Amino acid sequence: MSSSTRPPAPAKGFIDYPRAGRGMPWKLLPSWRQVLLLGVLGAAMLVGAFFVAYARTTVPSADAAAVAQTSTVYYSDGKTLMGKISGGTNRTMIPDIDTIPVVLRQAVMAAEDRDFQTNSGVSPKGIVRAFWTNIKGDSKSQGGSTITQQFVRNYYADVGQQKTYQRKIHEAILAIKINKQKSKDEILRDYLNTIWWGRRSNGLQAAAQAWFPRGLNDYKSLNLSQSAFLAGVIQAPDTFDYRRHEGAVDAGKRAKAEKRFRYVLSGMVQKGWITQQQADAAKLPQLVVRDDLVTNYSDSPTGYLLKFVRDELTNWGFTEQEVEGGGLRIITTFDHDAQVAAETAMDPDKGQFPKTDAEDVHAGLASIDVKTGAVIAMYGGKNYLERQINDATQPVLPGSTFKPFALAAAIEDGHSIFSRYYGNSPLPATGTRNEFGDDYGSRVSLLTGLEKSINTVYVDAAMDIGPEKVVHALTDAGVPADAPGLAAVPSVPLGTANVSPLNMALAYSSFAGQGVRVKKPHSVARVLYRDSRDPWKPPGNPTVKAFPKDVTADVTYALSQVVDAPGGTGTEARAVPGAVAGKTGTHGQDDNTLSAWFVGFSPRIATAVDFYKGNGREDLDGVGGDTHAAFFGGGFPAQIWTAYMKAAVQLKPWKTSDDFPERVCKNCNGQDTSNDSTPAPTSSPSSSPSTSATPVRPTPTPTPTPSQPATSEAPVEPAPDGSGAPAAPAAPQPGASG
Question: Would 144 disulfide with which of 78, 130, 215, 685, CB 3.0-4.6 Å?
Answer without folding.
Answer: 130
